[in-house]
Amino acid sequence: MTSFADDMREFQSQLALGRVQAAYQGLMQYMLDLKTHFTKKHPDYSVSGSLYQGYMDMTYFAIVPETLKQRGLKIAVVFVYGSFRFEVWLSGCNRQVQARYWQLLKDSGWAKYRLVPDPKGFDSILVHPLADPPDFGDLDALTAQIEQGTLAFIQDVEEFLAKAG
Fold first, then answer.
1. Of the candidates 21, 33, 120, 123, which lies 20 to 30 Å from 98 by C-alpha distance?
2. CB pairs under 8 A, 24+ apart, for 73-82?
3. Is the confidence at residue 94, as pLDDT, over 90?
4. What total number of domains does the chain contain?
5. Is residue 132 part of a domain?
6. Residue 115: is its pLDDT beyond 90?
């Protein structure tokens, strides 16, 4: 295991090359553009005004369809740095809501999407990969892939919740 000082020397070395900054700035711009895309193309959904940039663990923005807002739920479009992929998550507005819907999904046996192992310690209830690996060489196609996957995920979750009551 390396020390913090060793990690910082490596970080400085990588930053000196200049590519980490360029890649990070490009990713942040793409995420902002993706958020704007959802805002413009889907005005019936509330799209968060801010982008959570994270600690190079995840970057995301929230989409809140009215049917989910009424239940204290939201959708997150997430770039996960560790797995280097885009995912869509179902999350709660707080830990209590998250635990309640996690239990509902677990008890139902609905397995269309991956349920996190335990609601404690996770920022999501359901997780689904959207682009693994993402093709940053064709951003229009990547945006379409993320949009289609997110809309299908939202529809499936809304249908499940409508049936579950």
1. 33
2. 73/97, 73/101, 73/125, 73/157, 75/150, 75/153, 75/154, 75/157, 76/123, 76/124, 77/34, 77/35, 77/38, 77/130, 77/146, 77/150, 79/27, 79/31, 79/134, 81/54, 81/56, 81/57, 82/57
3. yes
4. 1
5. yes
6. yes
